[in-house]
Amino acid sequence: MSTLPLIGITTWRRRLATSLGDTDLVTLAADYVDAVRNAGGVPLLIPDVRGEEVAAVLAHVDGLLVSGGGDVSPELYDGDPATCSEVDERRDASEMALLRAARELGIPVFGICRGLQVMNVTFGGTLVDDLPSTEAHALLDTPVDKLAARHRVRTTADWASAGLPRDESGAIRVNTLHHQAVDRVAPGFDAVARADDGVIEAMHSVEGDWLARAVQWHPEKMRLPGEATHALAVLADFVQHARHVAQTRHAQQKETV
User: Fold this and answer.
1) What is the Cα–Cα distance from 244 to 108, expressed in whole angstroms?
2) What is the pTM of this model?
3) Which of these is catalytic: 84, 95, 113, 227?
4) Topology of domain 6-256, per CATH?
């Protein structure tokens, strides 16, 4: 009998209007939950954690998905505060601690958008503060335009293009929902995808057997014809590695009974 892997997904705090007035809420777009569930994982939302809470959380999850959101604090990579927005230092500290511990424990990790950026900073890389407008990364105003925009990406990793058709040049097309990106890649990682303007769009760990992958785009928000299976496909190996962790833990628990 297969053991369902528990996938922890990081969240962020937002102040939203409720019947009790403006309230701090721990939030996550439902797209992430749906994507993890469709890929065979059981989603578990993780608020910002600290200290001993980090180990307690990772003792119970089999995989870690670091979600998108606001900018990583520029103080962590000598960036320019004037270009950054929605910085949450509690979230930075929590996700960086979770990522470091996940590497030590061999727990598989997948990062999306900000998830790629914080993964890169955690392990010694830097970021581009604010991407200049290019044909690949045009400045768009409305939510409809932002969600519909696509740009070309060339990748050397099959996992990154999973579920997407390639054009005649071998490139895939992905969405454009970010204003920051990886600059210097962290030691122990390789860039495996770039847009036409040279922006790094995906990277993965090359350290031993640890599976750590991240993309700059949002697979969970890609629903146009021909791309609807991408979120499931790009998460498939990640969830399968998490399933192996779950099965190993289950076997170890049986041996101790």
Assistant:
1) 10
2) 0.93
3) 113
4) Rossmann fold (3.40.50)
